[in-house]
Amino acid sequence: MELRTLRYFVTVAEELHFGRAATRLHMSQPPLSRAIKQLEADVGALLFTRSPTGVTLTPVGTVLLDEARALLEHADRVQVRVSAAAGTATLTVGILGDSTDPGASRLAAAWRRTHPGIDIRIRDTDLTDPTCGLRSGLVDVALTRAPFDQTALTVRALRTDPVGVVLRADDPLARRGQLRLAELDDRRWFKFPPGTDPIWQSYWNGGSLREGPVVRAVQECLQAVLWNGTVGLAPLGHDLPAELALVPLTDMAPSHVVAAWNESDTNPLIRSFTDIATTAYRN
Q1: In terms of DSSP bridges, do strands 90-96 and 232-235 run parallel, antiparallel, or are they unpaired?
Q2: What pLDDT does 43 receive?
């Protein structure tokens, strides 16, 4: 199995939709579909159950997803160590959540203009690690959301976004203009796996202990709402499928888009990157 194909597989598994996965991978859908079919042939089993609205993982696909994530994380760690030893002029950026954010697009354009000779390597991460691999040395700087444990990290706020609750469009509460957290106390919420940063977990559960399905990626959150009527939180302004609604919460603290890096890291490229990011996200 090639690492590139495994990355394709993980992206489709997180998006649960070939079209969205192709967009995230910056490729067209036909070669992505062919790559997954070839991987299924190599494995000797179907990895996805396909339908007109998307895909779901088969039991074999679920097993491969766990193994592929572990293998790709190890491969990323190897590349970081080799690049460091070679002294290559590369900055590795971890991105959590919506990599199509206009702020990120402006940042990329500004970076290309000011640092044409410096390569940027992007590590797109799931929701289980808000630091995007900073603590394990997989990235130099993270574009992520607070709050999370900031021990030994330097964090710079880039933008503040109000937060709402994601509901099915046919939910009676979806017709409301705004809601309070207490009105959701009797609902099931999606939550992150055991071992996730408790500050991060608490924020996205509205500051309370919640029961509900465990999710790792944005699309898993949305599918939990769509299929199970689960509720969860998301920044306002994000595009959602027509079957879902995002209702503002009046008593929920806003979510902060931030840049974060290890406080002991003196790499001058990080300072330059965060300075450009500060301007890009506030324009």
Answers
A1: unpaired
A2: 95
Q: What is the pLDDT of residues 95-139, one digit of tens each?
A: 986 656 888 999 999 998 988 878 899 998 889 999 999 998 999
Q: What is the pTM of this model?
A: 0.72
Strands 244-248 and 163-168: antiparallel
Write out the H or E segment, with its range, that includes residue 6.
helix 3-15
Contact between residue 72 and residue 3 where contact means Cβ atoms under 8 Å apart = yes
> Among 222, 242, 233, which Cα is nearest to 170's?
242
Residue 138, by phi and psi: left (phi above 0), alpha (psi -120 to 50) or beta? Answer: alpha
Query: 144 with 260: CB under 8 angstroms?
Result: yes
Chain centre distance of CA 149: 17
Strand pairing category for 141-146 and 153-161: unpaired
168 strand-pairing partners: 244
- For the CA atoms of 153, 159, 164, 169, the dihedral, rounded to the nearest 10 degrees, stands at -110
The residue type of 225 is V
pLDDT at 143 over 80: yes
Q: What is the CA radius of gyration of the chain?
A: 19
Q: Is the dihedral of CA 252, 98, 54, 68 positive or negative?
A: negative
Q: Count the Cβ atoms, other than its own, within 10 Å of residue 187.
A: 17
> Are 37 and 9 within 8 A, CB to CB?
no
Q: Spell out the residues 6+ positions from residue 168 whose beta carbon is closer than 8 angstroms to its own.
A: 174, 225, 226, 229, 243, 244, 245
Amino acid at site 214: V
Decide: 257 and 281 in contact? Cβ < 8 Å: yes
Task: Give burial (CB, 10 Å; 0-12/13-18/19+) of 223.
Answer: buried
